[in-house]
Write a structure and sequence with these properties.
The protein has 115 residues and is an alpha/beta fold. The chain is 40% helix and 21% strand. The relative contact order is 0.18.
């Protein structure tokens, strides 16, 4: 079972994402903020990261990528409510505009994880 790490500061969204991805057969780990995300990665390496880009500062995004760079590559999806989401995508595999309809996000996860 593939593991998705969700880094999201809104608990209601985090729960919604977790429920939807668990329903699709993924193991889901949620983290709020950089420290919790880094600690989680050190314990359990995810297969994919969904990141609310506003949570991490630029240096923390690079640290996240460094932590994920050893071994097999871990894709990162920036999930943002910014209209300029595409401008923020440096360092991400994909960028998805945050919405209450998470079908686009689910499709991108499926595309990156291949199942």
């Amino acid at each position: 079972m593939k593991t998705i790490l969700i880094i999201e500061d809104y608990p209601s969204l985090s729960k919604l994402y977790a429920k939807e991805f668990q329903r699709q057969g993924y193991n889901v780990i949620a983290a709020i903020g950089a420290n919790e995300a880094f600690a989680t990665i050190s314990r359990k390496r995810p297969d994919l990261v969904i990141l609310d880009i506003r949570i991490l500062r630029r240096g923390e995004v690079y640290r996240l990528k460094e932590l994920l760079s050893s071994g097999d590559r871990v894709p990162i999806i920036f999930n943002s409510d910014h209209l300029s989401c595409s401008e923020l995508c440096g360092g991400a595999d994909l960028c998805v505009l945050k919405s209450s309809d998470i079908e686009a996000l689910k499709a991108k996860v499926k595309e990156l994880l291949g199942n």
